[in-house]
Design goal:
Helix content of chain B: over 70%
Distance between the termini of chain B: 26 Å
Strand content of chain A: under 5%
Number of strands of chain A: 0
Shape of chain A: globular
Helix content of chain A: over 70%
Number of helices of chain A: 12
Radius of gyration of chain B: 20 Å
Structural class of chain A: mainly alpha
Number of domains of chain B: 1
Order of helices and strands of chain B: HHHHHHHHHH
Structural class of chain B: mainly alpha
Distance between the termini of chain A: 24 Å
Shape of chain B: elongated
Order of helices and strands of chain A: HHHHHHHHHHHH
Largest sheet of chain B: none
Largest interface: A-B, 33 and 37 residues
Largest sheet of chain A: none
Number of helices of chain B: 10
Radius of gyration of chain A: 20 Å
Oligomer: heterodimer
Strand content of chain B: under 5%
Chain lengths: 258, 263
Amino acid sequence: MSINVWGLFRIEWRKLRRSGITAVYFLATLILWIPSVLNADLNFTMQDVGILPEDNFLIQGYMGYAWFLFPACLVVSTVLLTQLERGNGGLRRMLSLPVSPVRLCAAKFLVLLALTAVLTLMSFAAWAAGAAAAGRIYGYDFMRPLSDTFCLVCRIWLAGIPMAACFWLLAAAVRTPVFAVGIGLISIIPSVLLINTRICVFYPAAYPFYVVANEYTKLAEHFSVSPIRMGQWLPPAAAITCTALAAACGLFGREERR
Amino acid sequence: MTLFLEIRKQRRTGFFPAFVLGGAAGAAIPVANMAFRSRIYTDRLTAAGAESPLKILVDANWQMMVMVNLLLVVSGACILYHTEFADNAFRKLCTLPEREWKSFLGKWLLLAAVSFLMTAMEGAALEFCRGYWFTGRAAADGAEYMEAVFGAGAFPHMDLVRSMMYGWLMMLPAVTVSLLISSVCRNMWISLGIGVVCFAFASMAPADSGVPALFPYTLAFRIPQGEAAGMAAEMTTAAAATAETAVFLAAGILAGKIRRRMA
């Protein structure tokens, strides 16, 4: 009898109970929205871009989120998933069980996606609370339709999946955490330069940021990024995701199995 | 003595290659920027109210270089203590006839030294850019060109050295805080997470004055002026950065003592 991916997912998820990662996520969402709430009056001076204050409040917050906080939290989560078990040779024990390493790797990747979903939901809740608070302070309703915002948040999360696969490959392939983390974090920086270029579709770290910039284009009159069609984006994104995942599953636990 | 011990501990963690490669990445930023878009910047030299070449270069590239430096400092600080915590090596460290704060100080010296190395590499790149694209291009003949690139007087130029020293000094509070966090948090993802969030806060909410500007990670984003005009303000922030570094160093030493008392 062997455990399927779903069973392994549940086991891996339970291991995270006392890791304290939600505290880090909570800190991240606080840091994201508190400055926006305190400086919410800046949103009234955006006439030259032609955007409503409530839309600007949302977009500016999520720009910071999609550009840096979301990818960086992803890198931190990969560290969590790889280091949690290395401590006392836990991974070696796990691999000595009759468990397929490929399935284990896939389950851990699913846990990574679930963790980012938690982060995404937290940022959404923090946006709603922040918009309400800013409304109280400045006497202007910063709320937008919840369903619209929820759709945007979900699209950011979906666009983050190829990036998650790449970071997971980095964590599985590079044994020295300082390299995996350093490369991951530094690769986030150029995405802000790349969203208006043709390379963008081949650079997974820029996808979530592009989603937000695209939304900005829709909401503002005088801001635009070059449009990317779904057909242009989907093949490279799918190829990158599949290649990265396959490579990660192949390399996972290589050191321990030797 | 402890510094050499700490250096030997990091031999197989990829710590040094990471910083050398990071310094190279930081140094590549101004070179790539000038190679692709040199016209934007050289035109500014002839425009009305022209700024000095160093100021143009630093204004255009320094922020991104700081991002590379800070992210490496954050992850480097994590790895310095991760090697101790991962296999419970710090327990053995506690039984040694050595004071624990010496280890903290050794790690701090090491991290400050590698960030100095990174800054020096980036300073050399800025010097190259200035010579190649600004003063060199403006020169008429070969001899003048060589003189422009390598300087008629002292080499390297004092304004650049001063700017880089200032940039390094501004980085030290973040170096100290990152190391303090990773010495307190046993799990690498927690210390990395806190460092990353602090970095995000500093890069998304820039501040030039008031209390928010004194946040250690925000200080690192200060752009060195490189000119006599900004000297007074630079001296103030430099003093603030030095004071913060001293306070956090003391806090780190104290944290080690408290942990020992509690153990």
